[in-house]
Amino acid sequence: MGKRIVIDPITRIEGHLRIEVEIENGKVKDAWSSGQMFRGIEMMLKGRDPRDAHHFVQRSCGVCTYVHALSSVRAVEDACGIEIPENARIIRNLLHGAQYQHDHIVHFYHLHALDWVDIVSALSADSVKTAKLSENVSGRPQKSAYFKEVQAKLKTFVNSGQLGPFNNAYWGHPAYKLPPEANLMAASHYLEGIKLQAKAARMHAIFGGKNPHPQSLVVGGVTSVADLTPERINEFAAIWKETKAFVDEVYIPDLLAVASFYKDWGSIGGNNNTFVAYGDFPQRGINYDLLIPAGVLMDTLRPLPLNTNKITEDVTRGWYESGYAKHPYDGETKPIRGETTYNTDDKYSWMKAPRYDGRAAEVGPLARALVAYAKGVPAFKTLVAYVLKTLNIEVKHLFSTLGRTAARGIETVVIGNAMEGWIEELKSNIAFGNKKTYQPWSMPDTGKGFGLNDVPRGALGHWIEIDGGRIKNYQYVVPSTWNLGPRDSKDNKGPVERSLIGTPVADPKQPLEILRTVHSYDPCIACAVHVIDPHTNETYKVNVI
Asked: How many whole angstroms separate alpha carbon 87 and alpha carbon 435?
């Protein structure tokens, strides 16, 4: 039997995640992913007005607020047979695109980059050489004085004995490969990214009222009529342009530069053979001509059509009352009451185990990029080819931690480019007098519907049943539940559990390599699990043994 190590909590993610692995002969032999708190929002929604659901589900977390609201209103609109106006489609696309731009920049620089970039190593960098590297790599080169200033800031952190935002990392680990100058350049862009992500969040506030928890989404469209002025649209466009420039000139060059030192990770962190993409960003109507196509890959790059009837959730290894795997329309959220016991041979997570046609499926940027590539979508084909050529790797190397990280950058470019067209489309509609953003409708007595939404972290779906004009049942399956859920009744591992198998670990006391693969999924555990009892407001306690 190998040696077991536990990382609890995983830092630089949203929410609370425990990862346990068994290491044998320097590699991960087995793995368990555990969400440590309970999700109960579905229980709170029963009996409420369907029009209010999107306000509740936004509170799943403080990061994924808009996307939950979007899935929710889409579910109610599906149940009620509502066709939203074109301006509503465009504004929703723009807000969704802004979410991608913001989230992916934050993930690369502030959550994931420190798995590849040794900040302390940057202290020994030559600022002149760093400036030269910046000229060769970045579309936005900086002078040596700039890098010397950044280096001085880092030294201040270190000399004070506190690394501030750069705490909780394994500096000096042998798995770090970047030279000091590359580390210094990346550290400077880390700091630039902090400023930019605040501006990117402003895009949500322009058409959404505020960020987080934008308020303009409603069943039937959006309430952004007062924002359809040249000044507001131009403000949005200006921030989009600045964000896009950072993506093109800094993010993508940094991603490719870092990846060039870690090409061996093109064969680490895969182990998944099923990928699901819901698709999103309709170019017309509600679900037509999607910018990111829907589809499923099973074992090959031959895409299969998405069939939502094949989606189920298994609760065998979660802290829920036992039952068979159910489709979300029939789903139940029945937590075990009282104390729970962490047992990797039995129940060990508050997350359910979503399955597609009985298979554990990866969702997210890699799934979307692979499905789009397999379907021959020109924008994705061109960028994937560029990445493969630049790094001198093959398509098979995309099925990995490296590929997952690269795919996130690829779709950031695709969506950022598409946003320009939506901005111009909105301007044109307004110029011709079309300012309609809402479709009046009436609540039916009964109805069933679902709202699919492919969000930065992956496939998000909300399912609703209406009875007597009220919510009879409500279930949602989130990306991090797909990716980080536990084993099922057949003992099939979840995607991240499978991805960790075979990962080399140089030092079990500093499991940097495990963090690389876990962070490549960009976990959002607050979406997957929440803490509250709807009747007593008592939180659930979890004892870990």
From this structure: 7
Please say whether the beta carbons of 471 and 45 come within 8 A.
Answer: yes
* Biggest distance spanned by C-alpha atoms of the chain: 71
Task: Specify the pairing of strand 280-284 against strand 288-292.
Answer: antiparallel
Q: At what angle do helices 127-137 and 144-159 cross, to 10 degrees?
A: 120
| Cα angle value 284/290/291 (rounded, 5°) | 110
Q: Are 150 and 188 spatial neighbours (Cβ–Cβ below 8 Å)?
A: yes
Helix (H, G, I), strand (E, B) or coil at 465: strand
Helix (H) or strand (E) holding 217, with range, is strand 217-218
Task: Find the distance separating the first CA and the last CA of the chain, reported in whole Å.
Answer: 19
Name the DSSP letter for residue 165: G
List of residues 6+ apart from 424 with CB closer than 8 A = none
Active site residues: 14, 61, 64, 68, 457, 480, 524, 527
pLDDT in tens, 419-470: 999 999 999 999 999 999 999 999 999 999 999 999 999 999 999 999 999 9
**Among candidate residues 455, 408, 429, the one with its CA nearest the CA of residue 279:** 455
- Please name the residue ranges forming H helices in 432-501: 479-484, 495-500
Calpha distance 262→176 (Å, rounded): 9
Question: Would you say 44 and 476 are in contact if contact means Cβ atoms under 8 Å apart?
Answer: no
Question: Could you tell me the domains of the chain?
Answer: 3-543 (1.10.645.10)
